[in-house]
Amino acid sequence: MPFITPSDVSSRPNLVGLDVVRVLAMSLVVLQHTMSLAGREDLTSLAGLSIGQLGVAMFLVVSGFLSFESRRTPTNWLTQRLCRVYPAFWIAMIGSFSLATLFSYKNASVGQIVSQMLGTGLWTHSDKLVNSPTWFVSLILACYIATFLSRLIECPRLIAAISSIGLTFLVARDAAPWLLSHFLTYAVASAIAACALGTDRKVATLSIAGVLTILALLIQPAFAYTAISMVSVELSLLCQARSRIVKLAADYSYEFYLLHGVALAGAMTVMKSSPVLAVIAALISSAVAAMILNHLAAFIVRQFRPTEQSTDANNFRTEAVKALPQM
């Protein structure tokens, strides 16, 4: 059974706007890591909120909004998601473990290597991850599996709604709910995508963001991550201007995320006397490597799944472009 019907196409989020969100989110994450490595983590907080965690929340809203956009069966959808996540991740982690061993940066046991390659490192070795930004892979895989199960039993709306309510209570009761708040962000965005269409989605998004803002002010500041990221994504969806640079950056954002942490750490270690040049060199090398990694991972997937195509993304992008005003 398809998750959407052709009549639902007009309700889909504008991919141009989502590309803008991905680039903005990636920029916040990179700024967080750069400042942390430079010993200026004090500059990465705004009103008590981490800009890096806000960037992660924005990624999760995009993923949640798109979680019910596929026409694939639940199994095919999950397979396609895993094919997108794992090959690039494995290549990046092989390189990361090799560099860590070569330069004696971190020691990793066989168990840690296996766990991180499976994408479960956050749950088993959170305090000593190699290529620490890849903790996000554990998070997004858990979200994908939850979406898969909800689709498999054909109760996506109910499960997304119950999960959102349950996680709201858990975040409110936890003193440091940074991880729970990310699950909440994905769950709320998924619930909106499953239950609200078109203008109803905008009303639902802004209404829920308003409630979460109140909860952030009265109970738990972490609710602000979900609220701000939801509003940011909704505002970005108003963007209609096509930009080849933004699209290119968004297309390679996942691979860039996998590589930028290692590049920044290495460059700032080697070029201690020129931190600005180190950051520039790291970002340029990460961008080039991300493009190579993207195409290499796609090539590997084609060898094992020759019929695997990004049908959903291609159709979605084509429809989004057609919907834009012609210049």
Description:
With 327 residues, the chain is mostly helical. It has one domain. It is 73% helix and 1% strand. A two-stranded antiparallel ribbon has the order 1-2. The radius of gyration is 20 Å and the shape is globular. The two termini are 38 Å apart. Residues 1-11 and 309-327 have low confidence and may be disordered.
List the helices and strands and how they pair.
Layout: H1 15-37, E1 45-46, E2 49-50, H2 51-66, H3 74-102, H4 110-118, H5 121-124, H6 135-152, H7 156-173, H8 178-195, H9 199-218, H10 223-236, H11 244-251, H12 253-270, H13 275-304, H14 311-323
Antiparallel strand pairs: 1-2
Quick overview of this protein structure:
By secondary structure, this protein is an all-alpha fold. Helix content is 73%, strand content 1%.
What descriptors fit this protein?
327 residues, mainly alpha, two-stranded antiparallel sheet, 14 helices, 1% strand, disordered N terminus, disordered C terminus
